[in-house]
Amino acid sequence: MDLVELLKYNPGNPLLFNSVLFFALFSVLYLVFTIVSTHIKARNTVLLLFSLYFYYKISGEYLGLLLIIGIVDYFVGRLMSKEEVLWKKRLFLTVSVLVNVGVLLYFKYTFFIVNQFGLQSSQFFSYFTKEILTPVGISYYIFKSLGYTLAVYRGEIEESENNILTYLLYVSFFPTIVAGPISKAQKLLPQFNSPTNITRENLSKGFFLLITGTMKKVLIADFIALNFVDRVFENPALFTSFECLLAGYGAFLQIYFDFSGYTDIVRGIAYLLGFEVEENFRKPFLANSVSEFWRRWHITLYTFLSENIYYPLSFGLRRLKQFGVHIAIMVTFFISGLWHGANLTFVVWGLIHGAAIVFDTIFRNTRKKIVAHINEKVFRSFEVLVTFHLITFSFIIFKSSSLDSAQIFIEKLFSGFKIEHAEKWFSFYLTPFLVMIGGAILAFLPEGLYKFFYVKFASMHWSAKAAALLIIIVFVYQVLGATTLPFVYIEF
Predict the structure, then answer these.
(1) Three-state secondary structure along the chain?
(2) Which among 140, 222, 408, 465 counts the fewest CB atoms within 10 Å?
């Protein structure tokens, strides 16, 4: 690949974290980074330039949109932090909300709205929608930037960021720009304004997360998607009840290992640079309710929606008491579904989760009474099993291309099980099945075992850690000749 190709945006070949090219470019960045790491401004400038280059390589001209959002919210933050008159602060915040939400609605939901209301034939709407493409990462960087102005307005950030380049680095920071985590400004900006903190522990965490993330993504998520799950979801009518059942389980496993693998990789990259970004997953398969599931799954999105939608809305509806809480929950998860994309499958997925959480709140006292009369560990295990199957069912709808496709899939689930179907399936898909079983075991392992493996890894010599990472990368991309897929959550 020549220099022109490196600088050119190629929509058919975006620069992704799971590509060999990215690891090569990151190695060059890391070399330069270590040279300038003792100088905060120089370090931040290098990181900003690489972040903007990285975003250009995955989204082309939409880099300009990212910069516009960042510049607008930077100045809104500065104006609000200097303003003491409440109505003026609200006016500035309104500008930020309108710009961010307006941009998100236009680029992500215009086609959806036009199609749902049958406006395709209108010359006006066809003119404004004919060349719309959804910019990569728009849902994430807009929530990051909007979260910043909301935090400044609420006084959670006493003094807004005074360096526009540092703020643009916060918005565009390359490890989090594609699919999160949706880092809080209160956590990330102070790190950018502090000396580089590359410790042995950070390096150990970085190497460990890069290894686990790569293995999760390529060896589990991509393998079961390419060799079984995606085939079923593309046309469920062609498959048996048993195949659809296993594909349903596989879909949940694939999405989890894909997204948590991505999160491990980006957190690992951040640690190697001396920064810490938030966790997004905390053993979600061990959740004993949908409420707890969301305290373990996509944690930064749940935190953003809770702080900026659920809490203000439930407070505003406090006169309705418990009913107001239920309305706030349903609205929050309706928005959560829409945030994932302009498809009714995501809306239904969100509403299922919202309804399940409402159910949790209604029967919370009933649960306490049941636990008082039976073994709590046994009952919790039962709850984990029920929660797992409810979440799995919701992800069947989530992964389906449309509600019609989801309906066909669900109908196939209940079309009748025959033992010969299982025997035939195992003869064709034994390896994907074994990978799914291995993935399920890993997903249900207690968190203590994960920490045990990390402690063992951390005790190794640094050269052994680097060698382990190199071996994993070579094994995955060369020995296996693995075909890698884009990260699932890059679409959102």
Answers:
(1) CCHHHHHCCCCCCCCCCCCHHHHHHHHHHHHHHHHHCCCHHHHHHHHHHHHHHHHHHHHHHHHHHHHHHHHHHHHHHHHHHHCCCHHHHHHHHHHHHHHHHHHHHHHHHHHHHHHHCCCCCCHHHHHHHCCCCCCCCHHHHHHHHHHHHHHHHHCCCCCCCCCHHHHHHHHHCHHHHCCCCCCCHHHHHHHHCCCCCCCHHHHHHHHHHHHHHHHHHHHHHHHHHHHHHHHHHHCHHHCCHHHHHHHHHHHHHHHHHHHHHHHHHHHHHHHHCCCCCCCCECCHHHCCCHHHHCCCECHHHHHHHHHHHHHHHHHHCHHHCHHHHHHHHHHHHHHHHHHHCCCHHHHHHHHHHHHHHHHHHHCHHHHHHHHCCCCHHHHHHHHHHHHHHHHHHHHHHHHCCCHHHHHHHHHHHCCCCCHHHHHHHHHHHHHHHHHHHHHHHHHHCCHHHHHHHHHHHHCCCHHHHHHHHHHHHHHHHHHCCCCCCCCHHHHC
(2) 408
